[in-house]
Amino acid sequence: MRTNTAFTGLRRLARPLPSIKRCDLCGAKLAPIHPHLFELQARELKCACVTCSRLFDHPGGKYRRVNQPVRLLADFILPDAQWERLLIPINLAFFYHDRGKKQVVAFYPSPAGAIESLLPLSSWEEIQQTNPILREMEPEVEALLVNRVGGIRVPGGPEYYLTPIDVCFRLVGVMRSQWEGLSGGTRLWQEVADFFSGLREQAEVVSGVEHA
Predict the structure, then answer these.
(1) Count of CB atoms situated within 10 Å of the CB of 67
(2) Do 95 and 151 belong together in one domain?
(3) pTM for this structure?
(4) Rounded CA separation 71/78 (Å)
(5) Which is the most buried residue in 15, 103, 106, 117, by most CB within 10 A?
(6) What are the angstrom distances between the C-alpha of 133 and each of 5, 34, 85, 207?
(7) How many structural domains is the chain composed of?
(8) Who contacts 76 (Cβ-Cβ below 8 Å, separation ≥6)?
(9) Using CA atoms, how far apart are residues 100 and 26, in angstroms rounded to an integer?
């Protein structure tokens, strides 16, 4: 397991926000929640104002807007034994297709930031075969977000989302900023529960297994 060194722009989303956040392209002041552009060549995520996020997002251009819908995969299939074979040490993780590495990579949030977990290709292929909707994931800008915490810490059963990648790194930011002690503390897990409650409210519920 190792920290990722390529997505420096993504890491900024997991840090406490400065008092004034500005657009990386024009310098305009930004709201706390704002659009993001993925810079293809540098492989970095850029904070953007609404105007720049639309102006610079066009076919053949330097950037791609991170603008995918949030979808809750109601019937996603991931048995406990299959999850355990992924060797991810906590029950929160996200997966996205890295075109530079030509494979799907896995990360999990921690007090130190987003930690990359080595993902056997055969494991992902098995999960994708069972859940064909994963073939629709947009490389770099969309991720499978897995929440299997459940129980007292985060009420409810396992949840699986297709989300914009910046949503995943906002969760990483919650973990980094709120973690206390060895287990994270009551405040952290309440923040995580609130995070997924908000995500659930905005998500479109779709099938994960009925897609071609």
Answers:
(1) 16
(2) yes
(3) 0.78
(4) 17
(5) 106
(6) 29, 27, 21, 8
(7) 2
(8) 131, 158, 160, 208, 209
(9) 28
